[in-house]
Design brief:
10 strands; 804 residues; alpha/beta; Muramoyl-pentapeptide Carboxypeptidase, domain 1
Length: 804
């Protein structure tokens, strides 16, 4: 690291001269200019001025005392203030200017150093050090272009110093070519001076007086030209500071108008090409003009049909809602309320996150995992942007130390959702949003522009990827309906989601009655799927992850040699590698599945469903509606064989009815329904049911799910189950009718079913005949009985709804 010998000399002088005082912290003599050296110089100056209360800040007391006791330091009075002259020399060395050879001597080199520095500041290059210039000497401000600084900004900075340095509250701004908080304040003060605010009133704030002054005197447009006032130059400066470089000549010509239109388009303003008030406001303050219409909002309370309609009626078309924090989070079914009102939505995730201590890489990972699971449960589909909040004024040092690592964790956590991939957005100040986005860790920014006093919003332009800008908190009211909200300006880059990107939530309850929302069942599948995704290798796709979930759900109940044959592993193109990764994924979920709840609802055998579904996925759909394959044997086929076994045994015991009656009253029936049957003569029959309601529900859902996964193999299993659940609750007969239609070609005729059942019981193909024979404990049905079985099967009397 470079060591500046002159800076070392200054540090040694400070230690030697003031190191014995309790108010002084000895410096590390390293030749590096830093705030510790500047603070030491400030305290030393206060000591020499006789100020008892020392401070790192060069505040009003230091300024007034320096003015009254020294005034401008020159060759004339330097001999009377040798110690202060020595401190000025140290400051010059730390700034990179000549400071002479002898401490306390205002030599020609000192004079040259002061003149060069003042020229770099844009001030008249005289050999005098006025109190304001002395104050600037004891800062870390640079007066030469540095790093990413631009010549255009530096020229403006020098001009501002030249024009306004004599005003009471205008202090020398840096001339480093970089737009910063101090430069922003200087610009605001300059504008206040131009609208005739007097010293002591001008304060650098964008208050009512400043706004009124701009509207009254500061509006500029094509043809405007600076004369005694400099509104055009200040407007051109504001454009350049915001990343839209304009000519800095005080003439509002075609070139300036073109730059204005470009900025207005970026900031979602009317592209007038003129310096109207709203354009001024957007250039000067992070909220812009808070009265401008907003088409987006964010709210921390659950939206009802009434409040959603209220938003829509007042011109809003997008609303941000929270995935997290119980009191603020999206409620069950709320997304349906939002999209049904014609609104779109963007999700926000915030678990406190309002102080530095919340931001670590581990916290980012954990919060992102929680966010993606919650988003999937709520029905947000792939491509949705989730905005993760940084809800405090993170400093320039905290952003790389805390916020960037936090978003690295966010990136890993979001990537853990393999089957539903979301985009990462950020909520925070302009500076936070820009730095995280430039690091490649956020695709979209939601700017907390409403926090106008945050350092991260002062002296920073809007991020290039801004999607929403939060500008005003207020209460929207119409009659008895009201809603607390934040008004947001939406950019053309915003990508809220609507009905097409949000899966509906299954609704329970008759039409006209209060609605409740059924979520827990498919939410449990989301937990299972995500847990498998965490342990899945890169070669595994959606079809493999779905298969691993289903395998684990039936492993403890259906995994003997027969079921292993029915449900082999489904492989990809790289069979050996894929097999190994599937095996590892199975082992991983087996170690953690005890922590997860088995998805279930009444009258449903989940392991049976999972095994049957995997059988269909393994062997595919039948080649025709009449054909029977192994996929059928793992589901309804062998269950029907068992029902035939039960019928024949009942007939031997005296059951007087035909197979159709038996099948229609037993297939899909509850045990309580079977127990209530009154057979003629009160015959004591075997009351067990080999094709129960639980079995039939499992068989039907296995086919419905598997057929959809065959059509779209990488579709997430929870989403398919959610769709089926939604459809079946909206129309109770949907499951039965869809099952029969998709498998047999029709839901109301027995022709295809009879042919298929005939093949089931009479096929001579070994792979069908052998397993059927293994399950048959009785004779095979004759032709007339096959027709009876098919008619009984098609009625499916107990399976109109899973919830009746």
């Amino acid at each position: 690291m470079f060591r500046d010998l002159e800076v070392e000399r200054a540090q040694k002088h400070l230690n030697d001269t003031y190191g014995h005082h309790s108010w002084f912290t000895r410096l590390t003599v390293d030749g590096q200019t830093g705030w510790s050296t500047m603070f030491a110089l400030t305290r030393a100056l206060q000591h020499e001025l006789g100020i008892s209360a020392k401070s790192d800040s060069f505040g009003p007391t230091t300024m007034s005392t320096l003015t009254s006791k020294v005034g401008s330091l020159t060759t004339t009075n330097a001999a009377s203030h040798r110690a202060i002259t020595a401190l000025a020399q140290c400051g010059l060395w730390c700034k990179g200017y000549k400071g002479g050879a002898t401490f306390g001597s205002f030599s020609p080199d000192v004079a040259t150093g002061i003149m060069e520095m003042k020229a770099d500041m844009g001030l008249p290059p005289t050999a005098s050090l006025a109190p304001k210039t002395f104050k600037s000497l004891l800062t870390m401000d640079a007066y030469k272009r540095v790093g990413s600084g631009t010549t255009a900004i530096r020229d403006i900075q020098k001009w501002m110093n030249s024009r306004y340095h004599s005003r009471q509250d205008f202090f020398i701004v840096p001339c480093d070519g970089i737009f910063s908080r101090d430069v922003q304040r200087g610009l605001m003060l300059a504008l206040q001076y131009e609208v005739d605010m007097v010293d002591g009133v001008a304060n650098g704030n964008f208050g009512p007086g400043t706004q009124a002054g701009i509207k009254r005197k500061g509006l500029v447009s094509s043809g405007s030209r600076d004369t005694t006032r400099s509104f055009v130059r200040l407007f051109q400066a504001a454009l350049t500071f915001n990343g839209y470089e304009a000519p800095f000549d005080g003439v509002f010509g075609d070139s300036t108008a073109a730059v204005v239109r470009s900025f207005q388009s970026f900031a979602e303003l009317s592209t007038t090409g003129a310096g109207d008030f709203r354009t001024w406001a957007s250039l000067l303050v992070s909220t812009g003009d808070t009265s401008r219409p907003g088409t987006a909002a964010d709210a921390s309370t659950v939206l009802t049909p009434a409040t959603a309609a209220l938003l829509k009626a007042h011109g809003y078309n997008t609303v941000g809602r929270y995935l997290s924090v119980a009191a603020k989070r999206i409620a069950p079914g709320e997304l349906d309320v939002i999209v049904d009102a014609g609104l779109k939505v963007f999700p926000i995730f915030q678990e406190w996150n309002n102080a530095p201590g919340y931001f670590t890489e581990a916290a980012g990972y954990g919060q992102a995992v929680a966010a993606v699971k919650r988003a999937r449960n709520l029905g947000f589909t792939a491509g949705t942007t989730i905005f993760f909040a940084v809800d405090y004024d993170a400093t320039a040092t905290e952003i790389p130390a805390l916020i960037i690592p936090y978003f690295r964790g966010i990136a890993r956590g979001v990537a853990s959702s393999r089957l539903v991939q979301y985009r990462v957005g950020i909520y925070g100040t302009r500076n936070v949003c820009s730095q995280v986005s430039e690091a490649g860790l956020a695709a979209s920014s939601f700017v907390s522009g409403m926090s106008t006093g945050y350092s991260g919003n002062l002296g920073f332009p809007l991020p290039n990827n801004w999607a929403y800008d939060q500008v005003l908190e207020y209460k929207l009211t119409s009659g008895a309906t009201s809603l607390e909200l934040d008004k947001d300006i939406a950019s053309s880059r915003a990508d809220p989601v609507g009905r097409e990107q949000v899966l509906p939530t299954p609704t329970i309850g008759a039409e006209g009655s209060p609605r409740s929302f059924d979520e827990s069942y498919f939410w449990q599948y989301t937990e299972w799927s995500h847990q498998v995704e965490l342990g899945a290798g890169n070669r595994l796709f959606g079809m493999h992850i779905n298969d691993v979930v289903l395998h684990e759900l039936h492993r403890n109940s259906y995994w003997d040699i027969k079921w292993q044959a029915f449900t082999p592993i489904v492989l990809g193109s790289d069979n050996a590698a894929t097999y190994a990764e599937i095996t590892r994924a199975r082992q991983a979920i087996a170690r953690t599945s005890h922590l997860l709840s088995i998805p279930s609802y009444p009258h449903f055998d989940t392991p049976h469903f999972a095994a049957s579904c995997r059988g269909i996925l393994s062997w595919g759909k039948p080649r025709s509606t009449r054909a029977v394959g192994w996929a059928d044997l793992g589901g309804w086929g062998l269950d029907l064989v068992q029902a035939w076994n039960d019928y024949v045994e009942a007939s031997r015991a005296g059951y007087p009815h035909d197979a159709e009656t038996w099948m229609s009253t037993r297939i899909g029936a509850d045990q309580k329904d079977i127990d209530s049957l009154q057979d003629p003569g009160d015959m004591k029959l075997n009351r067990s049911n080999g094709f129960s309601r639980e079995d039939l529900n499992a068989d039907i859902d296995a086919q419905l799910v598997a057929y959809r996964l065959i059509d779209t193999p990488d579709r997430p299993l929870p989403d398919v189950i959610r769709k089926i659940r939604t459809a079946s609750l909206e129309q109770p007969s949907w499951r039965r009718e869809t099952f029969l239609t998709e498998r047999f070609g029709s839901s109301n005729t027995s022709t295809e079913i009879e042919a298929c059942i005939d093949n089931l019981f009479t096929s001579q193909k070994f792979w069908i005949d052998y397993p059927v024979g293994q399950f048959l404990n009785v004779r095979r049905p004759i032709e007339s009985e096959l027709a009876q079985i098919s008619r009984g099967f098609i009625s499916l009397s107990g399976i109109l709804s899973i919830d009746d």
